[in-house]
Design a protein that fits this description.
Length: 382
C-alpha cells in the first residue's frame, strides 16, 4: 500500500480516526454488522472477530461527561471510570450506543461496580480475570474465555468454530507485529518522530474496523517514516519512556510538556503501547483457549499480583530505546498503579540507574502549567 499524503497529514488522519469511526460504525450497523464494546486489553478480541463482529474500545478519554457521572459515582473515583460511565449515561458516545454487547473484566473494583450500573443501559457480560498469572490463574481464565465464546454464540445466535478463532488469532498477531515494527522505529537515535504522532497511530488504529487494511496501513506508514527519516529533527533531545495508567487525553498535556522542554517520548510502556502488543499468541498451540489465556493473562498490568512481567518489560525497553529518563503518569484514584509505582521507581533508579519522575493527574487541563513546570525541571536535570 502506498501512502501519498505527507507524514503530518497521515498522523493527523490517524488522530481523527476516532471521530471518523462514528460514521463508519453507523454505516456498518445499517448493513447488519454486530459490534462488541470493551474496556481493556485483557479482553480477547479474537472471539468477536472470529464471529465477524467489530470490536470497539469504550474507555473514554476526556472529562466532558464527568460532571454528569459524578451525580451517580463518587467524585474521588478514577476519571477513566467516571468519563466512561458518563458517556454511557448521557448517550453521547456513539460507540456505546451502537454496541450490541458490552464486555467488562474484573481488573479493578471501580470498574466492576460500574459494569453493574452499565447493565441498566445495555446487555453486559463480565469476564472474571484472575489477579495472579499462576498456572491456576491461566486455567481459570481459559474457562472464562470459553464462557465468553458461549455468551457471544447465544447473544448473537451464531456458532464460533476453532478454525475461525485460529484465523482471528493470525490476523491480530499480524497487527501486533506491524505495531511493534512501527513504534520500534523509535529505537533509532535520534528518534524519527514525536511521541504525540506515535500515540495518534497507536490509538487511532483500533478504530479502523477493517483490521487487515489497518495493518497494511501501519506497515506502509512504517516504511514512509523510514524513507523520510530526518536525523536532525530530534537530535539532542532526551529520550523519555512513559509508563503508568492508561492516561487518555492526559497524554497530550504530558507529551506536550516533555517535547516543549527538550525531550521526546520514544516509548510508551502503558496500555495502548508496548504493554498491550508486546507478546504474540502462540499459533502453534492446538488448544486455542489455552493459547489465548496464556497470552492475555501475561499482560503485565498492575492488577496482577505479583507482577514481575512489568519489571522485565521495563528492563528491556530501557535498554532497547536508550532511555534517558522515565516518567510515570498515574490517574487519580488508580490505586494499583499508584502502589506499584514504588517498585517501578526503585527498579528504574537502583537497578537501571535511570532518573525517574512520578506524576498524578486527571483528565482536566487545570494542572497543565504545573505539569509543564515539573517536566521541564526533570528534563533539565537530565
Amino acid at each position: 500500500m502506498e501512502l501519498v499524503k505527507d507524514l503530518p497529514a497521515i498522523f493527523e488522519e490517524f488522530s481523527e480516526q476516532r471521530k471518523n469511526a462514528f460514521l463508519r460504525m453507523h454505516e456498518l450497523k445499517q448493513q447488519g454488522k454486530p459490534f462488541v464494546g470493551g474496556f481493556c486489553t485483557y479482553l480477547p478480541k479474537e472471539l468477536p472477530l472470529a464471529m465477524g463482529a467489530c470490536m470497539v474500545g469504550l474507555c473514554s478519554k476526556d472529562g466532558e461527561t464527568i460532571p454528569e457521572a459524578e451525580q451517580d459515582l463518587p467524585r474521588n473515583l478514577c476519571p477513566l471510570i467516571k468519563s466512561s460511565y458518563g458517556y454511557a449515561k448521557t448517550d453521547k458516545c456513539p460507540f456505546f450506543y451502537f454496541s450490541d454487547l458490552i464486555v467488562g473484566e474484573t481488573t479493578c473494583d471501580g470498574k466492576k461496580k460500574m459494569y453493574e450500573m452499565l447493565a441498566e443501559f445495555k446487555p453486559v457480560h463480565v469476564m472474571e480475570l484472575p489477579n495472579s498469572q499462576s498456572p491456576m490463574g491461566k486455567k481459570l481464565f481459559a474457562e472464562e474465555i470459553k464462557k465468553f465464546k458461549e455468551k457471544l454464540e447465544s447473544h448473537f445466535e451464531t456458532t464460533i468454530t476453532e478454525e475461525q478463532i485460529k484465523e482471528a488469532i493470525h490476523k491480530t498477531n499480524e497487527q501486533r507485529k506491524a505495531l511493534k515494527a512501527f513504534y520500534g522505529l523509535q529505537k533509532m537515535d535520534p528518534a524519527p518522530m514525536g511521541g504525540l504522532d506515535m500515540h495518534r497511530v497507536l490509538d487511532g488504529v483500533q478504530f479502523r474496523f477493517d483490521m487487515e487494511r489497518a495493518t497494511e496501513e501501519v506497515k506502509a506508514l512504517t516504511q514512509k517514516v523510514i524513507d523520510e527519516y530526518d536525523p536532525e529533527k530530534y537530535r539532542g533531545r532526551k529520550r523519555i519512556l512513559l509508563t503508568g495508567s492508561p492516561i487518555g487525553c492526559s497524554t497530550q498535556k504530558v507529551v506536550n510538556a516533555i517535547e516543549s522542554n527538550g525531550g521526546v517520548v520514544v516509548c510508551y510502556e502503558n496500555c495502548g503501547g508496548a504493554r498491550s502488543v508486546d507478546e504474540l499468541i502462540d499459533e502453534t498451540n492446538p488448544d486455542v483457549y489455552d493459547a489465548l489465556a496464556k497470552r492475555y493473562i501475561n499482560i503485565p498490568c498492575s492488577c496482577m499480583s505479583p507482577n514481575p512481567g512489568r519489571l522485565e518489560l521495563m528492563d528491556r525497553l530501557i535498554d532497547e530505546y536508550k532511555i534517558d529518563g522515565v516518567i510515570e503518569v498515574v490517574l487519580q484514584a488508580c490505586h494499583t498503579f499508584n502502589v506499584e509505582s514504588y517498585k517501578i521507581k526503585n527498579y528504574v533508579t537502583e537497578k537501571k540507574g535511570v532518573p525517574y519522575m512520578f506524576m498524578e493527574t486527571d483528565y482536566s487541563s487545570t494542572d497543565a502549567g504545573q505539569v509543564n513546570t515539573r517536566v521541564g525541571a526533570f528534563i533539565e536535570m537530565l
